[in-house]
Task: structure prediction
Amino acid sequence: MNYFLCITTEENAKIVMDKQIWGVSKKYQNAISKVNPGDHLIIYEMGKGGKEPKPQYIKGIYEAVSEVKEDNKKLFESYSPNETYPLRLKLKEVKLFKEPILFKSLVPEMDFIKNKTHWSGSLRRAMAQISESDYKKIVNFK
Result:
């Protein structure tokens, strides 16, 4: 089994959780093509900038239940008007966190984040494959 951190906006995290679909743009084809049915995807909601930046949270864990399929129907919000995040996976809920996990509190424990001071650079992409060890740290976080 493989594990992925799926980085998205607050608006798209709601769509993922409501529709149980994950989608990325074609530039992330290599990343999403590594996902197989049975793999687990962790939904990471990135904060927004502004005067009071919003924190980043882990919202839930889903299992991929399909192969990657292409669908250009508008579903997700995008910065680019023509972007539909067409490479999609169907998901099944594994765990929703009643209280989302503040990601910053996980950073010191995450092996995939090499620079613990400027850790957000590790998350400037749609998906990041993580180790089983990092996955377990997230799932079992108290």
